[in-house]
C-alpha cells in the first residue's frame, strides 16, 4: 500500500465554479505510482466547496452559479450569521449542500474521471481569499 499526501494552496478566485483538475494533478505527481486506488481532495474551508461535474462547456458552471444563487439568496432577514457580509451565511449553506471533499478512483496512475468530468472549486464568497486543499492518494 502506498499513501501520498500533499497540500495545495489555490490563489483567490472570483465567486463561481472553477475547474481545478490540472492544479490537483500537478500537486500530486506521485499519483502515477498507484495502479489501483483512491484520491481524495478535501477543502479546509466552510464557505467554499468541491464538486465533480462538466469540464467542457463553461455555461454549465455559469448555470450552477445561477441556480445556487436562486436556491440560497443573500440578504435573507432570517439569517442570524451575517457579521461578515450578505454573502457569508449563503456561502456556508452552499458549501454544506455541495460538500467539502471528493473521492476519485485511481486507475493505472490516472484519475478515473469520465470523459466530460472535472474537479470544481466552488467559490461561494465574493472575496473568499486563497483556498487550501489536502490531497491524499492511496492504493497499490
Automatic annotation (TrEMBL):
Pfam families: YjbQ (PF01894). InterPro entries: UPF0047_YjbQ-like, YjbQ-like_sf. Belongs to the UPF0047 family. This is YjbQ family protein. It comes from Mucilaginibacter terrigena.
Amino acid at each position: 500500500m502506498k499513501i501520498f499526501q500533499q497540500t495545495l494552496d489555490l490563489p483567490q478566485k472570483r465567486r463561481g465554479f472553477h475547474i481545478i483538475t490540472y492544479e490537483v494533478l500537478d500537486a500530486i505527481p506521485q499519483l502515477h505510482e498507484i495502479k489501483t486506488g483512491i484520491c481524495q481532495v478535501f477543502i479546509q474551508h466552510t464557505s467554499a466547496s468541491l464538486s465533480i461535474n462538466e469540464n467542457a462547456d463553461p455555461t454549465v458552471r455559469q448555470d450552477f452559479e445561477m441556480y445556487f444563487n436562486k436556491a440560497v439568496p443573500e440578504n435573507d432577514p432570517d439569517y442570524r450569521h451575517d457579521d461578515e457580509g450578505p454573502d457569508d451565511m449563503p456561502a456556508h449553506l452552499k458549501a454544506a449542500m455541495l460538500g467539502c471533499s471528493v473521492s476519485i478512483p485511481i486507475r493505472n496512475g490516472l484519475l478515473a474521471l469520465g470523459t466530460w468530468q472535472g474537479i470544481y472549486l466552488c467559490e461561494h464568497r465574493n472575496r473568499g481569499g486563497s483556498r487550501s486543499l489536502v490531497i491524499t492518494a492511496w492504493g497499490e
